Amino acid sequence: MPTPTTTCTPINLLDPALKPILEKALAGERLTLAEGAVCYATGDLWGLCGIADLVSKRMHGTNAYYNVNRHLNYSNVCALSCKFCEFYRKAGEEGAYEFSIDHIRNEAIDAQTGGATEMHIVGGLHPTLPFEYYTDMLRAIREAAPGLHIKAFTAVEIVHLARITKKHKQADPAPGIRWVLEQLKEAGLGSLPGGGAEVFDDRVHDDAFKGKIRSDVWLTVHQVAHELGLNTNATILYGHIEERADRLVHMDMLRTTQDEALAAMGYKADASGAVTLTGQGAVQPQPNDTHGYFQAIIPLPFFPDGSDLEALPGPSGLENLRTIAVSRLMLDNFPHVKAFWIMQTLPMAELMLQAGADDIDGTVVWYDITKVGHASTHQETTAVDLENAIRNAGLEPIERDTRYRRVTREGASWRLADPVS
Ligand code: V47
C-alpha cells in the first residue's frame, strides 16, 4: 500500500518520562531497551498508547487490516511437552488427531469456495508423519485451491522437518533449513507464520519449553526464509514466567534481524545499523520484493487454561494493551502490529487499534491452539464483524491478502485491487 501522508499532532503526556519517547517517535528514531522499560513502567498508559497510535497512524493513516482466511491445525500430536501449551497430545492419547491429505484438500476447497485468500497451517511436531506428508499437503492445496496463499509451518516445524529428513546439523543448521524451505516453496508454500518464537530467553526456554529450538535457530529459519524471498511474521508469547525485560530483549533481537532483511532489500541503515520505518514519509516495504522480511509482529497473551502453568493468572487486559503499544514503539522496522482477535478478543482488539495495532487477523473458522473457556475449535467470525470492529475504532477497514495488498470483493469472489496498492 502507498505510504499515507497523515500529519500527526503531538499529544499531552502526564508522565514526563514519556517525553523523550514521544520525541524519538516523532523523529522516527529507535528506542533503547532502557526506554522500552520506561514504556512498560509508566503510569500514563493512555499517554503511551497515544504515542504508539501516533506512530501507527503515521505508517498506515486511518487504514486497518483484516483478511478472509482459514486456520488449519493438521495434527496436535507433538514430540514436545511445552508447559504453556494445552494443544498438544501424545500419540495414542485421547483427543490426539492427524488430518488426512483428503481432509485437508476438502478444507482448502471449502475455504476457496467461501472466498478465503489464505490458509494458515500449523501443527505439532509429529513423531512419525513423513516429510512427503507436508509436501503432499501443500501440493494438494495448490492443485485443488490455486487461489489460496499458503502460510504454513512455524520455525519449530521447519527444523523438525530438517531433522526427520536427516538434513539438520546442530553445528550449522542453515543448510538443512534452506533445503527444507526450498522443497516446501517448490510444493506451494507462500510464507511462514510467526509462531514458535515464545520468548527469546534461555532461562524461560529451559523452564517452560525445553526441547524447542532456541532463539538463534528460530531466527536462522526466518533469515533463510527471507533470503529465499519468503515473507514471515513473528510472535512473542508473554504473561507466563518471563519478565517484562525479557520481552524487550526479544523485541530487540527481532528488530536486529529485520534490519538485516531491510538492508538486503536496499534500505539505508543508520550508523548503528538500524533501519526504521516509523519516520515521517518512511517508505514501507512493497509486495513483490524478491527478498523477504518480517511483515507483522503478533503479541500473544498467555492462556493458562488446561496447560501445566494453569495456576498462573495470565496477563491482564491492560497488560495486553500496553504490550501492543510497546511492540509498536520498539519494533520500529516491522510494518504491521497484529492484535489477533482470537486471543485478544474482538472488543479488546478495537482498543488495540487505537494503541499501535493496525491489523486484527481474519475470519479464522477453525482454531485449536487456544480456546477461550470451553469454546470448541470452531472459532469463526465474519468479515462484517471484523469491519465493524475496525470502524468502531474510528478506522477504515481494508481487506488485505497475505502480502497486505488491497482486496476487492463481491461475495466469495475477490481480486487484488487495481492498480495493486
Ligand atoms: O506458536 C501456544 C502460542 C502460537 C498458547 O503469523 C499460546 O499471522 C497463548 O503463532 N496461550 C501459534 N498462546 C499462534 C501463532 C499465530 C497466531 C495468529 C497469527 C499468526 C501469524 C501466528 O500460539 C504458538 C505459541 O506461541 N500458544 N499455547 C497458550 N496457552
Short description:
The protein has 421 residues and is an alpha/beta fold. Helix content is 38%, strand content 14%. It binds ligand V47.
Number of domains: 1
Helix content: 25-40%
SS field, number of helical segments:
14
CATH architecture title? Alpha-Beta Barrel
Q: Total strand count, please?
A: 14
- Tell me the radius of gyration: 20 Å
One letter per element, helices H and strands E, the order comes to: HHHEEHEHEHHEHHEHEHEHHEEEHEEE
CATH top level is Alpha Beta
| Unique bound compounds | ligand V47
At the third CATH level, what is the topology name? TIM Barrel
SS-derived structural category: alpha/beta
CATH superfamily: Aldolase class I
Fold and architecture overview:
The chain has 421 residues and is of the alpha/beta class. It has a single domain, classed as Aldolase class I (TIM Barrel). The chain is built from 14 helices and 14 strands. A 4-stranded parallel β-sheet has the order 5-6-7-8. A 3-stranded parallel β-sheet has the order 9-1-12, with helices on one face. The chain has a 3-stranded parallel β-sheet with strand order 2-3-4, with helices on one face. Helix 10 links the parallel strand 6 and strand 7 (294-301). Residues 84-87, 154, 193-196, 198, 233, 235, 237, 298, 300, 302-303, 307, 340, 361, 369-370 line the site of ligand V47.
